[in-house]
Design brief:
Layout (H helix, E strand, L loop, with lengths): L1 E4 L3 H9 L5 E6 L16 E5 L2 H15 L5 E6 L6 H15 L2 E6 L3 H14 L3 E5 L9 E3 H6 L6 H4 L4 E3 L1
Helix pairs in contact: 2-3
Length: 167
Amino acid sequence: MIVTAGGSAAPKAARQATSTIPIVMAAISDPLAVVASLARPGGNVTGVSLMAPELGPKRLELLTQAAPKASRLAVLWNPTFSDAAVELRATQAGARGLGVTLKPMEVRNADDLARAFAMLEKERPDALTMFFEQPAKFELVINLKTAKALGLTIPQSLLVRADQVIE
């Protein structure tokens, strides 16, 4: 058995190398880049998706629910992560669907991060989201004290979905 992790490059290469040894993809952002369908991957490849492309639009949806007046959003992303471009495209599509403007900012290292924060200070987007590494657990934590300081009223529909609410 071959086990791959990370992006889609390793399972693609393994699939090209063999059609008989079972290949298990672990932590892949875009499994459809490797298999025919999620329900029936076919051949000798199977695995687990991170659902990363679906998370970008979901983050924006939650962000716009928490801050409905936000219309200009920045996203920090690391293009060196193997499937980051797939996640960014999904996030951009989500932004279009929500009617918000998204400003992607590449961050590959500490220098890029400093430049990104200087640009954020200059352009003053209404909100910021980011993706760099893939988390092992997803939680929605809402800080009501900070929301109040920002002049935000968090809708009850969002509060009931939270794993933790900080008073």
